[in-house]
Amino acid sequence: MDRNGSLIKGTLLAVMLGTGLAGALGVVAPRTASAASLQDQELQVNLADESFRVDSTAQPDGDGHTRITGYVYSNKGRAADQVQLRIAELDASGKPVATYFERMLEDVPAEGRAYFDVKVPANSQAATYEVNVYTWNTVEGGSM
Fold first, then answer.
1. How far is 34 from 95, CA to CA, in rounded Å?
2. Model-level pTM?
């Protein structure tokens, strides 16, 4: 095998390992979005706000990340699993500077609450974080 082939394979292996390591560490990467997809995100969050309430706090973790913890409460008497959170970093004026998506590990019981604990990269522009339920799967029977 020639030198260029080895370099390409080595680079691909490093990218694959780095991607897997980031997922294993629970670190999420920001996603950029077009204006149309931002409107879709807001519509989805508005629908979720009818079914869920989120209480959260954000603290630096000392390792270059911000740890966001809190609870998701079910408002509609339906249980949910596969709950994905949308975390928006807001600057001092309330303008979003980055958006992250993270799946909760716990299911949200009907008329109950579930705990979450996620990390996002620390951002010096972020004054606050806004956490909303973005997607979920309603569990039939709804009691969990």
1. 15
2. 0.66
